[in-house]
Amino acid sequence: MVESRYALHRTELLGSLEEGERKIIALLKGSSYPLSAEALLVKAGEDHPYVYRLLQGWAGRARVLPDGRKQFILIFLPGDLFAVKSMFVAHHPDDIVAISDIVVERLNHRKLHSAYIGDGDIATRCIWQVIEEERRLHTWVVGLGQGSAEERVALLLIDFRGRLILSGDIPPDSLTYIMPLTQAQMADHLGMTPVHVNRVLKGLRDRNIVSISGGRVGISNLDALAGAAAALLDPGELHTSAYVGRRLGNA
Q1: In what helix (H) or strand (E) does residue 45 lie, and over which residues does it extend?
Q2: pTM score of the predicted model
Q3: Which of 67, 140, 141, 170 is 20 to 30 A from 234, alpha carbon to alpha carbon?
């Protein structure tokens, strides 16, 4: 059985979610264009006319404080629909920036909103995207508030693997993937200093659990990495092999 990318969805909605995805992709057809790493897609505090789908590369939603401190709030991976709130808010509260070189598709928020109003499948898919971002944020808030440094790093690496598998970007049993985040960017997402991130990664590498070299994540012991993240994973992730492997995912 192929695992669905629509985490914790009601089974009766799967057909509508998949049809909504197909229809939105059709609306976006022919709109793709490239952007370089560090390019700003959405500027905080400003109105923005577009909703995006990421085709290649990684992007992130970030808030920059007046003194220059930065928090990456969400990381977007290939296949993600983002900036859906352009349909509903006059000003975005956060920046959205390209983490690596990317290719995106975009659709004017008015055109998508018209489709949203007139097509239940498109509305279901858009609403699910908001719910999915909320789900990820809930997990991340728990990690920031209660997780140890090792649990947070393990959660980050497990989350990326699972999402890349479910989007079809890497094979189902892959133990390697490319991660363009620098350690400084990881720290800005993890709520840690780069030195602390480096120390945790060294500990995981020394125990032959996972290593990162040249932007490539290599997992040597998926059970141990999933075990380190388990306290922070939500019920859907804990029972999905894309995140935690077949043995733990089927437990």
Answers
A1: none
A2: 0.92
A3: 170
Q: Are strands 102-108 and 33-35 parallel, antiparallel or unpaired?
A: antiparallel
| Tokens representing residue 242 in the block | 């894309």
Separation in Å, CA 91 to CA 60, 63, 85: 17, 14, 9
Q: Which residue has the tokens 């990495």?
A: 225
3-state secondary structure 147-208: CCHHHHHHHHHHHHHHHHHHCCCCCCCCCEEECCCCHHHHHHHHCCCHHHHHHHHHHHHHCC
The token duo for 117 is: 């109003």
**Residue 40, class by beta-carbon neighbours within 10 Å (0-12 exposed, 13-18 middle, 19+ buried)?**
exposed
DSSP assignment of 49-87 equals -EEEEEEES-EEEEEE-TTS-EEEEEEE-TT-EE-GGGG
- Alpha-carbon distance of 144 to 138, in angstroms, equals 10
DSSP assignments along 204-236, one per residue: HHHTTSEEEETTEEEES-HHHHHHHHGGGS-HH
d(CA 57, CA 32): 13
| Predicted confidence (pLDDT) per residue in 103-157, tens digit | 999 999 999 999 999 999 999 999 999 999 999 999 999 999 999 999 999 999 9
Each residue's pLDDT tens digit, 42-89: 999 999 999 999 999 999 999 999 999 999 999 999 999 999 999 999
Q: Which residues contact 93 (CB under 8 A, 6 or more apart)?
A: 44, 45, 63
SS3 243: helix
Q: How far from 156 is each of 16, 68, 118, 144, 178, CA to CA, in Å?
A: 30, 23, 37, 11, 13
